Amino acid sequence: MIEVEVHQSLLNFLQSQNQPYWPHNLTMARLVARALRLGRSALIQTASPPGSHNQQYQLSYLLPILMWPRKTILVAPQPVQEHLLTVEIPRLLANHSQISPLLPNKAIQTYPPQDHDFNGLLLMTPEAWLVSQCQDNQFSKGIPTIIDWADNLETWVQNYLTTSFFPTDWNQLMEVYSAQADLIRQTRINLTRSLFQHPVNPYSCYLIEKHEQQILQNLIESLSLPREHLNNDFWFQWQSNGQLRWAEIHRQRGSFSLYCTPYDLSEALKNIWTQQPVVIIGGALDLEVKAYSYRQMMGLGDLTCVKFSPDRRNEMIQLYLPNGLPMPNTPQFQAALIAEIRTLLYISSSAIDGLIVILIGDIPLKNQVGAIFASEFGSRVQVETVSPEENGILITGWEFWQEHQRELKAPKLLIITTLPLPSLEHPLVSGRVNFYKQRGLDWFRLYLLPKALQELQRAIASVRESQGVVTVLDSRVIHRSYGKQVLAAFSPFAKIDYLDTTWL
User: Residue 9 pLDDT > 70, yes or no?
Assistant: First the structure.
């Protein structure tokens, strides 16, 4: 069986390298080989999210793919593909004598393929794969597909399914319907007036209210939209059921953009999963082994689920949870937070030889904290930069940290000010919460909490490599019932109850 061949071949290769390797390589390689042989889908959590520098698990799916005698598709972002093509695959091919004589004969192409009938490995970006699935599902039907970096799968799907109407599209609309140009122009003026009355928020976007939807609906009925010759899917999707509709306001330019995306991504995805066996590989998709919440959100049915744990010897963090801090939703929190961060920085500055990162989700607070501590610690303090000093203090929001964590040196101390629960001030979040409420579902435990736990696991990925310290200043971890799930997301960890430079 291919599982035995893959296991022995990978074992020979790893032993020939004479260097430490990911402890679950052999197990995962057998799982992927089994999925290829049986044509059964699988969901594998590697405990190495995209933010981690440690992506050694990729050998575990590459070798089974290269040894599999039939066509396979590998879906991964372009930077991952480049790494595989320039580093990992050449390394395997250079050692094929210790692995398998089949490797050099495996054809490898990137999408679009030069030959649709070739019997090898086809590398596709997530965007290209989604287009092929949704617009030409015969292309990859029945071909085993491996999806790497699936921590971003929800974002990829949401971006693909989101349609937009930009300020420049109004001009095209007036060209097509020149006789009704005045009506179109007046509709745009009315929408601008209404949207710009919304109070300013940090996200610059807002749910479309009922009277604003009616303004657009009047235009749609007057022009008999949509029309195929407009070459824009926006109007088709806007009038479909189950759509989340919002506007992004560009206040300085005096314009706005309109967007809509499905509330429920699972409806769009569940048919895709039945077209071919799929192995979905992510670092931290769900706290549970069976990944019930993640599978429900992504429309995944019955499949093999495996969840690997971080190595307790090499990836354990130290976790400090100070007692006595006010709750984040109280007036006393901000002053107490700044005082606690100041204490941590003064104690750690002399003890830590490395980067300190402070994660703050609140945008105004992030800038305020940056200004306060820049006045005390000077140029060491920087806000959202990819080139901090070696012993710098980097203050950043969650999105910036997730995007650039891999580029930065692993921090010795990561200070998390509040849990990354999605903000209800964000219209996309409040819209999805309303979607859950209308169906009588527990929106907090089915949506907000799982998203926060995913974010936490990804945020501490690089700290595990340095076996550094994570400090959480959100007392809800201690006092709320869901605190146990939050602590499970940090596992494995050694809990610290007091400040001492010996643990820095």
Answer: yes
